[in-house]
Please model this.
Amino acid sequence: MAAPLVFKAGPRARQKIEQDGLHADTVSAIAGAAGGPKWLVLAEIDRLLVGHWLKSRNQPLPLVGSSIGSWRFAAWAQNDPLAAIDRLESLYIEQTYAGKPDYATVTNTARRLVAELLGPDGAKQILSHPWARLHIVTALCRGWTGRDATLPMAAGFGLATAINTVNRNLLSAFLERQVFTDCRDGALPPTAFPGFQTKLPALNETNLGAALLASGSIPFVMQAVGIDGQAG
Model:
């Protein structure tokens, strides 16, 4: 019978696990990918990881998330992570829309979800967590890609797609990766994010909610999210 979970590791990781075992302090970073509804499957794993396995963690642990991945980690890094995970799960499932919602409606709903996930002092809890170090991946949209109008946005992303097939480095004319970083242990090196231009602005209590919203923003569905005067 096939195992319910399959664990994959490269040669070096496998050798280390075989020699030393796999412990909470073995892991040097965790990445949380985008993918929306798939988090509903991962939620139970999240409860096991943060509610049990990582409770013995002693060293700072970078949590690098994009979109729902960043929202998951924002729940992990609160004082009561299991309650935060439950809250995020309920908020995600219970969001409703009438007819075909416009950009503003979807954006306002997502903004409310982030606000309720964080509560009155969630940002403070996240940025003072003993081991979790949240890093939120966003994209700064330039020119037409940052417009809240379908035709200009379609033209901008279409041109960006075409240019990407020629030279990925040219994407910086349309998009810039910005990773809002918990800097308590020093910023992550830019080499951690290859591919095209990346900046690492500091994450703070003021911009954390907006960074989460921008990370989860969907072109052609939501409005551009302003962070420090820039559209993400």
